[in-house]
Amino acid sequence: MNLPIRTLRLGLAWLPQPRVPALALATLFFIASLTPGLVPRDTMVQAVLSGVSLAAGHAIGLILSELWYRLEFPPLPRPVQIRLRTGVALVCLLAAGVALWQASEWQNGLRALMEMPPVDTIRPFHIAGGALLVFLTLVWFAGLSRLAVRKLSAALARVLPGPQALLVAIALTALVFWNVGNGVLVRGALTAVDRIYAGLDGVFEETNSRPDDPLKTGAPESLIDWEDLGRTGRAMIAAEPDRAAIEAATGAEAMEPLRVYVGLNAAPDPASRAALALAELQRIDAFSRGTLVIATPTGTGTVNASGQQALEYILHGDVATVSVQYSYVASWLALLTDPEYGVETARAVFAEVYGYWSTLPPETRPALYLNGLSLGALNSELSHDLHQVVGDPFNGALWAGPPFNSPTWNEVRRNRNPGTPAWLPAYRDGSAVRVINQRGWTSGMAAPWGGFRILYLQHASDAVTFFDPRAIWRRPDWMTGPRGPDVSPDLRWLPLVTFLQLGVDIMTAVKPPRGYGHRYSFHSYARAWAMLFDLDAWTEDVLEDLIRRVNPPV
Known about the structure:
The radius of gyration is 28 Å and the shape is elongated. α10 links the parallel β2 (291-296) and β3. The protein has a 7-stranded parallel beta sheet, sandwiched between helices. It folds into 3 domains: 15-156 and 475-508, no CATH class; 160-201; 211-462 and 512-550, Rossmann fold. It is an alpha/beta fold and 554 residues long. The chain has helices spanning 2-12, 20-34, 43-70, 78-113, 123-156, 162-201, 230-238, 243-250, 270-283, 305-314, 331-337, 343-357, 375-381, 386-389, 407-414, 463-466, 497-507, 522-533, 540-550, and strands at residues 258-262, 291-296, 319-324, 367-373, 396-400, 433-436, 453-457.
């Protein structure tokens, strides 16, 4: 009978003894993690977030307790310590239980804002179990690192004084754990993800057959093989609308829209792929169209279908779009690991297309615009510099869901006009830069568009756009004052926890329906393109009629 008890004691020996600050802060962080973020969380994601938050609060509490001990403040009498610890533990347990019950209401409030169904009633039990498992796993790793420091410190103490041995042991242990985590686990995970996405990119869909139209990329006359477009490229070329669909929806004469896509396998390097893209544009006489758009794809190589369709409807098909793939990896993963992933390709494509476009007579060449979503928006912005275009600027850009580290987007938010919210900023007189959200809202525009224009399309609930690394220690500016229409009023800021919440929200930003989070709808894009091109014919009533007729899937 004693063997199981001894085994249990040995198994739990690595668990730290509960201390009042650790219990209190762990519970506070756990409760805060249950409050809404920018997008709803499913049960597993919430459990992981709560477990990490629980461990973070517990660790900070232990550090504070150790600091109190090291400063030699007088300890409380032992009986008082026991009663206080028991009382705090009971209060914490009760508070955590109430918060778990309330968590479903918090999530349902946010889900209602995004027109999503409510969560299951058994969700709190799954969250509690999952969070506890994550917490214990992290504590085990912490115990393992302490053991490594203690053993290494003892070995080094034979040749170094005690404090120096401890310091070196801590540094070496941290270095080993960092190299294993970053060099082996992270790199291995990225390699696996890249292989998965590369495999998906090569999958052929029965619905996307090789086109016969010689003006389409991948056709027999094309400079690019259908197989080399990849899955995302074939989807872009095969997508609606065609001329007939545009005429049916708008009731006006239209042209067949032109699309060029160059996949990763079409040429060996970014410069070669960019040159191939220009050659294909020239082959189909794309520079005779009224508008030419350089669409920088997302990390997976996707050109947003809703944005592309809206562009072609708004311009009645008189537009050519070119896009060149640079990656297979999801944008959020590239943003967190290598923010400049794809910049080389974006710069090569812009240099080729703009270089040729700038040689054409201004009165006959097409209007040139840039476009991108997510990482595509960032790379599109970084595809050129001021000195490159100042003598002959292109016409403008529509950037949707700009990442939080986009230079121009940060300038607009940081220096926005007084009285305008960070989630819908107005910048100067609005003649060069404007911001629009999914409801068509903009903040004060005192002047008409100038010759060069940038329009940002973003949602207040998009963590890719509103993630803030400084949320570890300060409240993000978009949480001050009135919230965006799709942001929960129950969202609260707490140091570190809010940072963790926003980090999770980046990874799950595409989970909500279109029109929320990082999912941009045909409705939003149609209004954005009409505003960017300043087309008076596209009034709100006409736009609503187009949206009803197209009725894109959500």
